[in-house]
Amino acid sequence: MKILSVLVAGLLALGLTACGGDSSSDVSTQEAAASSTKIEELKLEKEKAEAEAESVKAKAAQEARKTKTAARKAAKRAAAKQRAQAQNEEAAAEEEEPETAEAPDVVGLRLPQARTALEAAGYQVRAENTDTTFGIVVPSHYTVCEQSEPQGDTVNVLAQKYGC
Fold first, then answer.
1. How many percent of the chain have pLDDT more than 70?
2. How much is the pLDDT for 83?
3. DSSP labels for 17-79?
4. Angstrom distances, CA of residue 30 to CA of 18, 22, 59, 113
5. For residue 93, what are the contacts with CB-CB under 8 A and spacing of at least 6?
6. pLDDT tens, 25-39?
7. CA angle, residues 143, 147, 152, in degrees to nearest 5
8. Contact, 118 vs 107, CB < 8 A?
9. 79-93, pLDDT tens digit by residue?
10. Mean pLDDT over residues 100-115, rounded?
11. How far apart are CA 124 and CA 40, in angstroms?
12. How far apart are CA 80 and CA 93, in angstroms?
């Protein structure tokens, strides 16, 4: 009988442990609840961080758009300024250029007098000749036989030593 009572006591002890009558099972249940609470807190922190990251990303995109817009506007202003400056320079150059419809007629003049007249009108002179081997050596010996239309600020003349 004594053995029987020991067996019954042992079985009862096992039954209580299995049913949660032991205090260690309460501790593990509390630890499980605490860890699930901690997991929930971490999930909330993660969601909060993701929302904050989205907000920062949206602000950065907005700033980038503002910067691009400002750069575009600055480039347009600079281009307009350059165009205006080019127009002003062009207008100033047009004002500086002398209004010369025609070069003075120098056909029949000696080469030095023809050169002086054309240079006084604002032209450069390019004299050529076809009747001497070494070109124009003594300009006062040559007479202007032909004169071309001005090409820019240069006038070509044909000067001959032995007459036209």
1. 79
2. 87
3. HHTT-SHHHHHHHHHHHHHHHHHHHHHHHHHHHHHHHHHHHHHHHHHHHHHHHHHHHHHHHHH
4. 17, 13, 43, 121
5. none
6. 566 777 777 788 888
7. 135
8. no
9. 888 888 888 888 877
10. 88
11. 94
12. 20
pLDDT given at position 81: 86
Q: How does pLDDT run across 5-22, given as a tens digit for each residue?
A: 545 555 555 554 545 545
Helical (H) or strand (E) element with 158: strand 154-160
Predicted pLDDT at 102: 82
Distance CA 122, CA 83 (A): 30
Beta bridge partners of 104: none
Q: Is 157 exposed, middle or buried (0-12, 13-18, 19+ CB in 10 A)?
A: buried
| Residues 56-76, mean pLDDT to the nearest whole number | 90
Residue of 82, 74, 65, 154 lying closest to 118 (CA atoms): 154
**What DSSP element (H or E) covers 160?**
strand 154-160
Q: What's at 13, amino acid-wise?
A: A
Structure tokens at 103: 């070069």
User: Which amino acid belongs to residue 93?
Assistant: A
